[in-house]
Description:
A hairpin with a 4-residue loop joins strand 9 (146-153) and strand 10. 6% of the residues lie in helices and 50% in strands. By secondary structure, the chain is mainly beta. A 7-stranded antiparallel sheet has the order 5-6-7-8-9-10-11, with no helix packed on it.
Amino acid sequence: MKLPFIIYLLFLSFLSFGQEIVIPNGYELIAEDIGDLDKDQICEKVLVFETSEPSEYGNVREIQVLKYSNGKWQVWKKSSNAILKSQEGGVMGDPFEEIAIENGILTISFSGGSSWKWFYKDKYRFQNEEFELIGHTSIYGRNCDYWASFDFNISTGKIIYEKEYEDCEKDQEIYKTEVEEFFYKGLKINLNNRNLDKVKLTTPKYQEDLYL
């Protein structure tokens, strides 16, 4: 009897979670998730490691995407650029939040700051033989000043920017809001080249600098 497709995927996931992974010497596993990332109906496993390699901003982190082949997990793709280092969160220290796989999309989230806080989320999809960045959302600001959000659909090029100014003398009342939409196309970022160069965009109406 042939299993329904959804049950088949669940069965594969159950088997996959039970298989051992090889943790390299000097590495510590800090996060993992499992899901079908290349639409071949077989789940991949995504791991995030803390390495023992030091840097100016703490230890280097590495993300690995594993495929299950010949009875074991094997590294398919990996990068030391897509995951922020262990102390890149500023005063808050470790910036890493989580990884998640949903509907074939790999999401990686970070946060950090001090009185000024920031959060951002990257979305990757496997295409053109790479995990390409297809979406980026960030929020940054502080109480009693302003909060700004930047949502970038890299696949379509559409950017939505919004900035809300707060007045704490009036119970954090929002007294001014700036919103604009514009397009920026042609950006090519993937797991391997993420964060190698900062991408700076300037909004056409309010001339706000946005960084990716």
